Amino acid sequence: MQNQWPESLLAKAALIRLIALDVDGIMSDGKLYFSATGDELKAFNILDGLGLKQLIAAGITVAVITGRKSPLTEKRMRDLGIPHLVQGREDKKAALQELVSTMNIRPEAIAYMGDDLPDLPALTFAGLGITVPNGYWLVRQHADYCTRAQGGNGAVREACDLLLSAHGKLDAALAPYLGPDQEAGT
Predict the structure, then answer these.
(1) Average pLDDT rounded to a whole number, residues 88-94
(2) What is the reported pLDDT for 184?
(3) Is the per-residue pLDDT at 1 higher than 50?
(4) What's the chain's Rg over C-alpha atoms?
(5) What is the Cα–Cα distance from 12 to 28, expressed in whole angstroms?
(6) Are 66 and 24 in contact (CB under 8 A)?
(7) Rounded to whole angstroms, how far apart are CA atoms 91 and 83?
(8) pTM for this structure?
(9) 144: how many CB neighbours lie within 10 A of its CB?
(10) pLDDT of 146-177, one tens digit each?
(11) What pLDDT sits at residue 37?
């Protein structure tokens, strides 16, 4: 992925101290699955999980803001060590503003990743708006970056790599997985 991102995008991403993510359509494929007994099922991509752990290890705060309440989402975020989970909030911009007001983080230091109209106000409020190719057209039109990967299929990992690269920390995040004589090639 050498030189994957334009310099203007990397400059914006270098300012980011917090990324806030939607769940359905971003961390999952956006489909709602129910068992015959009515239990909700949700699939999360393992690539995204490791990317989020790498961000946290690199000192970038991760938050999740979702309009739905789901015990599955709560469990996944707990497993990933994501301390900031806001569920059941349709007004995601207000939720994001409330969250960052306690952290003293300015809008230009926030990345927001979402795929549908409820995400649009938060995405345009943030200094870096990220979406996915399977997101709603108007959201794609207003985002600073649209990932190559689809939501639920590694798009979050791509955004994590972007932020790590912009902060000069991607090679260090990848180094433990390479042999001593290999380079990441980022």
Answers:
(1) 97
(2) 63
(3) no
(4) 16
(5) 26
(6) yes
(7) 20
(8) 0.93
(9) 18
(10) 999 999 999 999 999 999 999 999 999 999 99
(11) 92
**Considering only CA atoms, which of 114, 108, 122 is closest in space to residue 17?**
108
* Count of residues in the chain: 186
Which helix (H) or strand (E) segment is 138 a member of? helix 137-142
Q: What are the backbone angles phi and psi of residue 109, rounded to the nearest 5°?
A: -100, 10
The DSSP result for 59-102, as a single string, is T-EEEEE-SS--HHHHHHHHHHT--EEE-S-S-HHHHHHHHHHT
Identity at 101, one-letter amino acid code: S
Name the packing angle between helices 71-80 and 46-57 (round to 10°): 50
The predicted pLDDT at position 41 comes to 86
Q: Which long-range contacts (CB under 8 A, 24 or more apart) does 82-91 make?
A: 82/52, 82/56, 84/20, 89/65, 90/118, 91/118, 91/121
What is the dihedral angle through the alpha carbons of 90, 34, 156, 59, rounded to the nearest 10 degrees?
A: 70
Q: Which residue has the tokens 């260090």?
A: 172
Residue 138, phi then psi, degrees to nearest 5: -70, -35
